[in-house]
Design brief:
With 487 residues, the protein is an alpha+beta fold. The chain is built from 13 helices and 25 strands. The chain has 2 domains: 303 residues, Pnp Oxidase, Chain A, CATH 2.30.110.10; 113 residues, 3-Layer(aba) Sandwich (UbiD C-terminal domain-like).
Length: 487
């Protein structure tokens, strides 16, 4: 099921029994975070707060707070379904004959239906506020040492000053007052690249921020897409229907027609302001630093909008499930470049960029090291601090097995390598902001061609015949306790 907008998705959650309405007054300063944290750890429902203290609009949180809910949000029962569609596209042969072209027409028609459409009127512009201000929004202060309130689910829309290519990214926005916020652009992000273009030209940068889009569009803003790939097109692919866009009122940008709120404004070249600290998805505070400043010039909204927010911090939080979606959805693309990769696990404890567990079909000496270096050269995988590579029989989704194999399969001096390069800006342990070292671990069985002259032992396993015999005897042995569990 594809959702046209946030309110349609929230209504669907209510119909599934996955939404709770809270009428009591709750403070967006810290209280909502504590509630959201408890909910996600317990696998609890999404929540709509109808009376957030000091605000004029309802607030919704925990929209993606379980793996099943995040998959439902993207219109599937399993994230792998989207990955399979990507794989099918990647492996579609180019039609040559007239008959093959005719057969391809339905698929081409489907692809064209994902392309964003421009409309003249839109729900996001039902109300155009005079004297726009952020003061009425239930913006969260998430953690005690945060530098202030932060907009945590913004879809920041910009274009490159020369090419006109669009980017939609999710960059947190610290609220300074009713008309200004920080714009947390990491230097590796596409939004920052657009800003550098405007800064070099000495031009004011137009910016629009959509709050409260449909789930697929929210997800697309987080996806590790190539710089030239349009996030709205990707959202259309995920939900199998085009995203409607409408011209903004005061800036030359197209914005999602079905959004709850749209903030329009600009960023001046060279203007910086202290932003942070912020309790980040690493589980630590990202420290205060100078960032560009967004100035609000217009605010448009639905007549009765919902304000969405998320809370990040020490895993698990709901961003874990969006990250898992990315892992599953983009694995087929990774495999087109590295077909020896059979599976990939980015465990939540690794906060997406600290640890990658890779299962490969090993075919030659040094294969594991080849895979590590190839991954470090691919897009946002360049930030991965530790890559551990395992043989094809290892289930890298099973952390117990991973740790067992890791402890038994490596000689630390022989089987590790270290490289230097870009690391995530949020890596507070790096020697410099955005620059540090990374480690690769070859946890595969070692071959004679890799200098291993000893005999590699086999793992302990019971024979299938004995397992089958004991299975047949088990019920008669009386080895189950009163609770029905094995003793």
């Amino acid at each position: 099921m594809a959702f046209a907008n946030l309110q349609e998705y929230v209504a669907a959650l209510a119909a599934r029994g996955e939404l709770r309405d809270v009428a009591a007054e709750v403070d967006p300063v810290l209280e909502v975070t504590e509630i959201a944290d408890r909910l996600v750890r317990a696998g609890g429902p999404a929540v709509r707060f109808s009376h957030p203290r000091g605000a004029s609009y309802p607030l919704v949180v925990n929209l993606f707070g379980t793996a099943a809910r995040a998959a439902f949000a993207l219109g599937v029962s399993d994230f792998n379904e989207i990955g399979a569609r990507i794989a099918a596209l990647v492996h579609t042969p180019v039609p040559e004959s007239f008959l093959e072209k005719l057969r391809a027409l339905p698929k081409l028609a489907e692809m064209s239906s994902w392309t964003p459409r421009t409309v003249k009127a839109a729900p996001c512009q039902e109300v155009v506020e005079e004297g726009p201000s952020l003061d009425a929004l239930p913006i969260l202060k998430c953690w005690p040492q945060d530098g202030g309130r932060f907009i945590t689910l913004p879809l920041v829309i910009t274009t490159h000053p020369e090419t006109g290519l669009r980017n939609v990214g999710m960059y947190r926005m610290q609220v300074y007052d009713g008309q200004t916020t920080g714009m947390h652009w990491h230097p590796h992000k596409v939004g920052a690249e657009h800003y550098r273009g405007y800064e070099a030209a000495g031009k004011r940068m137009p910016v629009a921020v959509a709050l409260g889009c449909d789930p697929a569009t929210i997800y697309a803003a987080t996806a590790p897409l190539p710089a030239e790939f349009d996030e709205f097109l990707f959202a259309g692919f995920v939900r199998r229907r085009a995203v409607d866009l409408v011209p903004a009122k005061t800036v030359d940008l197209l914005v999602p027609a079905e959004a709850e709120f749209v903030l329009e404004g600009y960023v001046d070249p060279g203007e910086r302001r202290l932003e942070g600290p912020f309790g980040d998805h690493t589980g630590y505070y990202s420290l205060a630093a100078e960032f560009p400043v967004f100035h609000l010039t217009a605010l448009t909204r639905r007549t009765n909008p919902l304000y969405p927010a998320t809370v990040v911090g020490r895993p698990p939080k709901e961003d874990v499930y969006l990250a898992k979606a990315t892992e599953r959805i983009f694995l087929p693309l990774l495999q087109t470049q590295l077909p020896e990769i059979l599976d990939l696990n980015l465990p939540p404890e690794g906060v997406f960029h600290n640890l990658a567990l890779v299962r490969i079909r090993k075919r030659y000496a040094g294969h594991a090291f080849k895979v590590m270096h190839a991954l470090w050269g691919l897009g946002q995988m360049m930030f991965t601090k530790i890559i551990a590579v395992f043989d094809e029989e290892v289930d890298v989704q099973d952390l117990s097995e991973v740790l067992w194999r890791l402890g038994n399969h490596i000689d630390p001096e022989r089987d590790t390598c270290f490289v230097r390069g870009p690391v995530d800006i949020l890596d507070h342990a790096a020697r410099l902001p955005g620059y540090g070292s990374k480690m690769g671990i070859d946890a595969t069985r070692k071959w004679p061609a890799e200098g291993f002259t000893r005999e590699w032992p086999g793992p302990i396993e019971m024979s299938p015949e004995i397992k089958a015999r004991v299975d047949a005897l088990w019920a008669s042995l009386g080895l189950e306790g009163r609770d029905g569990k094995e003793q």
